[in-house]
Amino acid sequence: MMNELITLIIILLKIVLIAIPLILFIAYLTYFERKIIGYMQSRIGPNRVGIYGLAQPFADILKLISKEIIIPSTSNRYLFIIAPLLALAPSLVAWSVIPFSQGKVLANINAGLLFIFAISSLSVYGILIAGWASNSKYALLGAMRSAAQTISYEIAMGFAFVGVLMASGSMNLQDIVLKQQGGVFHWFFLPLFPLFFVYWICAVAETNRAPFDVAEGESEIVAGFHVEYSGMGFALFFLAEYANMILVSTIIALFFLGGWLSPFENIPYIGVLFSWVPGFFWLFAKTSIFLFLLIWMRATFPRYRYDQIMRLGWKILIPITIVWIIVLGLAVQLKLPPWFS
Amino acid sequence: MAEIRNFTMNFGPQHPSAHGVLRLVLEMEGEVIIKSDPHIGLLHRATEKLAESKPYNQSIGYMDRLDYVSMMCNEHAYVMAIEKLLQVTPPLRAQYIRSMFDEITRILNHLLWLGSHAIDIGAMSVFLYAFREREELIDCYEAVSGSRMHATYYRPGGVKSDLPDNMPQYQASRWRNKKELKKLNANRQGSLLDFIWDFTERFPKHIDEYETLLTDNRIWKQRTVGIGVVTPERALQLGFSGPMLRGSGIAWDLRRKQAYAAYEYLNFDIPVGLNGDCYDRYLVRIEELRQSNHIIRQCVDWLKQNPGPVNINDHKIVPPRRVEMKESMESLIHHFKLFTEGYCIPEGECYAAVEHPKGEFAIYLISDGANKPYRLKIRAPSFNHLASLDEMTKGHMLADLVAVLSSQDIVFGEVDR
Question: Global pTM?
Answer without folding.
Answer: 0.88
